[in-house]
Design a protein that fits this description.
Layout lengths: L2 E6 L2 H13 L5 E4 L11 E6 L3 H11 L5 E6 L2 E5 L2
Antiparallel strand pairs: 1-3, 1-4, 2-3, 4-5
């Protein structure tokens, strides 16, 4: 399944972003950021289904929250996208 990963700067930030997305009706899962997603070697991301990307992005922007990076994952391959 294709999905997007919104990289958060901390576990607290990921939890805050999760609440925003849940309140907007966007199903979301918090995941540990895999190696190479962050320069610090640890972090958290929020997984959002491909068809919910625009809704998630809009909800985060309206709340004043911005992910550190955004990745698109398809067939197990990840690429960073500009938002």
């Amino acid at each position: 399944m294709n999905h997007y990963l919104f990289l958060a700067r901390s576990v607290t930030n990921a939890q805050e972003m999760l609440k925003v997305l849940e309140n907007a009706g966007v199903p979301t899962k918090i995941r540990r950021a895999s190696l190479g997603m962050t320069e610090r070697g640890c972090g958290y991301s929020l997984e959002v289904a491909e068809q919910r990307f625009l809704q998630a992005q809009d909800a985060l922007l309206r709340s004043g929250m911005r992910p550190v990076k955004v990745f698109f994952v398809s067939d197990g391959k990840r690429r960073e996208v500009e938002v």
